[in-house]
């Protein structure tokens, strides 16, 4: 089932001359885990905002083409309606925190209150989101007394508690330590396997290669490629788009190793191990 | 002389909940990465170096000055800290004013401050933007402004808190070059960071913090060889090193180039089977 259909999307912010998104078209199926990559200013965050309606409803500007989410035309649907379908985890958790709640527990309730979820239903949803992100012990803490990494976990949990069909995450693990980052990726993968559609902007290419079903490569507002991680990261023109392939792919490239069946570079630790351990010059 | 000496440092925010536990360390000229799990005490540690916090026990000595006896203002000529979030650091509405603010405050003359600001902005590649409002630039450019603001103060010690957040590949390469440039000028560069690949490619020495103590301290290569200990500290070795350990490649390679060279050398030594 097509969960998201984008056709010929063009967008320009107010008071700017260049298109932030230029003729972008793609389709995403329910339950897919999509990674979005590209250099800074490629249009990644703008595309995230366009999926949940902040573009164009909040930012205004010039808009062309269409974005359809679960059958709803985004440009013709109010954000409050879209918020029931699409959840956005902000790049900077400080920007996302409501500022009107005194505890982490209440901060997670904020979105649910706005959706009109009954109190009895709120509590189990908040508790399970806190458990999924490993922040149960911070329930009574003030959100602004959390460290950057803890606040980032809270920001993700706040959106997961709202149980959106589609979750859009903009660099959700930038402030987490390596194991914390891995835990968050696994938690999000579990949601994806339960049918939640996941769209994630990320600079950690090794993680994108390992967890995404498909990878979207953006540059200068255009969609350059949208394919499996193996195909996208085996392109020989990645440098031109300011991207370095995952370390494991670069090692295999350096040794001239390709996966025999596909002719593409191995992307993950496990795949690279299989090829490198048997490699002879 | 060591630029920083720490003797039996103890710190807590609330009595009975220790954050740093009897740390003794010396920093020489080697660029040093400080790694550790969220909540391991890394940010608290650098705040103690800056004099923003004072030890509960023990001593922190910066260029011969005990931080317990000095004001933050007096220490600011010796040690600079680039904030994790540039939006917390930048407050002027012109790039040049922002970068000259620190130098003027530590007593540089107008001319010297201007000269150092120009040099620092040239180093980060923003010389052409001196009249812009920092908030008209992108987040990654604001990060570079926040770096230039500290570099212009010409302190002997510069600390970065998570310099690679929100940076793409070329942004990381740029920051790597800036750090190497500062090291070549003889500055002591310390960095709190979660990006192990960046640590492997950039820093000579690495410290692992865990539960308020220094769990490992050595050359970056020695530290990343300790895969088990790193995992206990909720860390992991760089991706290159992980693949080397798995495939049994010796020598703890830290970069793609080192891995490829080691592997080719190993292949060349292998006897040809008939």
Automatic annotation (TrEMBL), chain A:
Claim: Cell membrane is one of the keywords in the record: yes
Source superkingdom: Bacteria
Domain ABC transporter residues, every copy: 4-245
Gene Ontology molecular function terms on file: ATP binding; ATP hydrolysis activity; ATPase-coupled transmembrane transporter activity
CDD domains to which the protein is assigned, alphabetical: ABC_cobalt_CbiO_domain1
One annotated Gene Ontology cellular component of this protein: ATP-binding cassette (ABC) transporter complex
UniProt entry tagged with the keyword ATP-binding: yes
Localization, UniProt: Cell membrane
A GO BP entry: transition metal ion transport
Protein name as catalogued: Energy-coupling factor transport system ATP-binding protein
Automatic annotation (TrEMBL), chain B:
Main location: membrane
A family per Pfam: ABC_tran
Gene Ontology molecular function terms on file: ATP binding; ATP hydrolysis activity; ATPase-coupled transmembrane transporter activity
Domain ABC transporter: 4-236
Swiss-Prot/TrEMBL GO biological process terms: transition metal ion transport
A cellular component annotation (GO) from this entry: ATP-binding cassette (ABC) transporter complex
Protein localization: Cell membrane
Keywords annotated in UniProt: ATP-binding, Cell membrane, Membrane, Nucleotide-binding, Translocase, Transport
Family of this protein: Belongs to the ABC transporter superfamily.
Name this polypeptide is given: Energy-coupling factor transport system ATP-binding protein
Organism: Paludibacterium purpuratum
Organism lineage string: Bacteria, Pseudomonadati, Pseudomonadota, Betaproteobacteria, Neisseriales
